[in-house]
Design a protein that fits this description.
The protein is mostly helical and 472 residues long. It is 83% helix and 1% strand.
C-alpha cells in the first residue's frame, strides 16, 4: 500500500468514522435546546461510562484481532476471528448481566441519577457495541472501506431518526436516547452478520490461538483503561469538584472539539493496517516521517480553522434557534485547547509503528498510565481554580506528555527522523491565533495564510513540485 493509498483509505475511513460520530454533532443542537445543562450532564456521564467500561468489554482483543488477522493466511484467519468472537460474546454477556444486577448501586454513583433503568439500558448498549465492532474490524483488515462507510451511514441515519422520534415526539428524554442507541447498535450487528458468518467456524477454535491473542492483547487492557481515564475522567471530576451543570457545559465544548479526535481516529483506521504491512520494508521509517509531516500539517490547519470560527458557528440561527443553545455558548472557550490536545494525540498515534514492529507492547500501559496520572492530578488542581478551562488544559497536557514519552521510546528502539518544523509549525501558528485578538477580516486572512506558509516553511522542493502539478 502506497502513501497515496493510505491517504485514500484514511479519507474513506475518516468519513466513516465521522459519520458514526457526526450524529453527536447533529444531535447537539437538539440536546442543547431540549435538555437543561444538568440533564445534558447526566446524558454525558452515561456515555462517559459506556466509553470507559467498553475497554473492559474488549480487554485488548480488538488490537489482537487486527494484528493476527492481517498477518494470518488462509484458514488461520478464521481461527483467530472465531476464537476472539466467541470469547467476546461470552464475556460481554457476563459483564452486561453483572451491570444489570448492580444497576441500583451503579446508577447514582456513575450516572448521577437514581433512575436505575438508565444503567440497565447502558448494559444492553455495551453488549451490542462490543460485538459489532469485531466484524467492522474485519472490514478494515480486508481493506473494505466502502462497505465500512455504508454500514456506518445506515447506523447514523437510524440513530438520528430514532433520537428525533423518541426524544422530540415521544418526549422520552435520556431514556429515549439510550433506547434509540440500543436499536441502532442491534441493527448494525444484524447488518454485519454476513461478515460474521463468513469468518466464524467453531470447528477451528484453538486453545493455542486463544493464549496467543491473550498474551498480545491483554497489555492493551490497562492501556485502554488509562486512555479512557484521560478521555472521560474529567467529566466525573467536574461532577465531584464543581457540579452537573459544569459537566454539561464542558461536554458540549468537548463535543465541538471532538472533530480533532475524529480526524485522528479516521486516519488510524487506515494507518494501522498500513504500517503493519509496510513495517518490514527498509524505507519504512522514512515513509512514516513523511506521513507525519503531511498528516499533522492537515490536522493543524483544520484545528486552526475550527478554533477561529467556532464562536460564529455555534451562533448560527436556524428557525429562531441557534445551532447550539445560548446557555451553552460559553463552552466554546475550551474548544481550541481540546483540539490542541488531539493534535498531540495524533502525533502519539503516528509513532505507534515503533511499538508494534518491536513487539514491545508492555510499554503502552506506561505511556497511557502516565497520561492518566497527569489527567487526574491536573484536573484536581486546575478545576477548582479554572473550572472547565482547567479540565481542557489537563487533557491537552496529558496527550502532550504521552507523545514525548513514545518519542523517547522510539529514539532508542525504532529511530525515525522527523521533519520537526512540520510538527512545530501548526502548534506555533495556533498559539499565535489564540493569543492575538483578531477581527473577522483578520480571521479570513489567517485562514488562507496557513497553507501558504506551510508550503514555504515546511514542504520541501519535491512536495512543492507535486502540489504545483496537482493545481495546474
Amino acid at each position: 500500500m502506497s502513501i497515496k493509498s493510505l491517504g485514500r483509505q484514511s479519507l474513506i475511513y475518516g468519513f466513516g468514522t465521522i459519520l458514526t460520530r457526526v450524529v453527536t454533532f447533529l444531535l447537539l443542537p437538539l440536546y442543547t435546546n431540549v435538555f437543561t445543562t444538568e440533564e445534558y450532564g447526566i446524558y454525558s456521564l452515561a456515555y462517559a461510562f459506556i466509553g470507559f467500561v467498553m475497554i473492559a468489554y474488549r480487554y485488548g482483543m480488538d488490537s489482537a484481532l487486527m494484528k493476527f488477522y492481517i498477518e494470518a493466511k488462509g484458514v488461520e484467519k478464521k481461527v483467530y476471528f472465531t476464537t476472539i468472537f466467541t470469547l467476546q460474546t461470552i464475556t460481554s454477556l457476563l459483564f452486561s448481566i453483572l451491570l444489570i444486577l448492580s444497576a441500583s448501586l451503579l446508577a447514582p454513583m456513575f450516572l448521577s441519577s437514581e433512575n436505575t433503568q438508565l444503567m440497565r439500558l447502558v448494559a444492553i448498549i455495551l453488549f451490542f457495541d462490543a460485538l459489532w465492532m469485531l466484524p467492522m474490524l474485519i472490514l478494515r483488515a480486508n481493506e473494505r472501506p466502502r462497505q465500512y462507510v455504508i454500514l456506518s451511514f445506515i447506523n447514523v441515519i437510524l440513530t438520528m431518526l430514532l433520537n428525533i422520534y423518541l426524544v422530540v415526539f415521544r418526549e422520552m428524554g435520556i431514556v429515549g436516547v439510550l433506547i434509540g442507541n440500543i436499536i441502532a447498535s442491534a441493527g448494525l450487528l444484524l447488518a454485519t452478520l454476513p461478515v460474521i458468518l463468513k469468518n466464524v467456524s467453531l470447528k477451528v477454535m484453538s486453545k493455542s490461538a486463544l493464549m496467543e491473542v491473550l498474551r498480545f492483547g491483554l497489555p492493551f487492557f490497562p492501556a485502554g483503561i488509562f486512555t479512557m481515564i484521560m478521555e472521560l475522567s474529567d467529566r466525573y471530576l467536574l461532577e465531584w469538584l464543581a457540579d452537573t451543570s459544569a459537566v454539561g457545559l464542558y461536554s458540549a465544548g468537548n463535543k465541538l472539539g471532538m472533530f480533532g479526535l475524529l480526524l485522528v481516529m479516521g486516519f488510524n483506521m487506515g494507518w494501522t493496517p498500513y504500517f503493519l504491512k509496510k513495517g518490514k520494508d527498509a524505507d519504512a521509517p522514512q515513509t512514516y516521517s513523511k506521513v507525519t509531516t503531511y498528516f499533522l500539517g492537515l490536522v493543524g490547519y483544520l484545528i486552526v480553522l475550527i478554533s477561529i470560527w467556532i464562536d460564529n458557528i455555534v451562533q448560527i440561527n436556524i428557525r429562531n434557534n441557534t445551532l447550539i443553545g445560548e446557555e451553552f455558548w460559553v463552552s466554546t472557550q475550551v474548544v481550541p485547547i481540546i483540539l490542541l490536545g488531539y493534535y498531540f494525540f495524533g502525533f502519539y498515534v503516528l509513532q505507534l509503528p515503533g511499538v508494534f514492529m518491536t513487539k514491545k507492547t508492555k510499554f503502552v500501559p506506561f505511556f497511557r498510565g502516565t497520561g492518566a496520572a497527569i489527567t487526574i492530578s491536573m484536573n484536581i488542581f486546575l478545576i477548582p481554580i479554572f473550572g472547565i478551562i482547567g479540565a481542557a488544559f489537563a487533557k491537552a497536557s496529558a496527550f502532550f506528555v504521552m507523545s514525548i514519552l513514545i518519542l523517547l521510546f522510539n529514539r532508542r528502539y525504532y529511530p525515525i527522523s522527523y521533519v520537526w518544523r512540520g510538527i512545530i509549525f501548526p502548534v506555533v501558528y495556533l498559539s499565535i491565533v489564540l493569543v492575538v485578538p483578531i477581527s473577522s477580516i483578520i480571521k479570513l486572512i489567517t485562514s488562507f495564510a496557513y497553507p501558504i506558509l506551510w508550503l514555504f516553511l515546511v514542504a520541501d522542493n519535491t512536495d512543492r513540485y507535486k502540489i504545483k502539478n496537482m493545481l495546474t
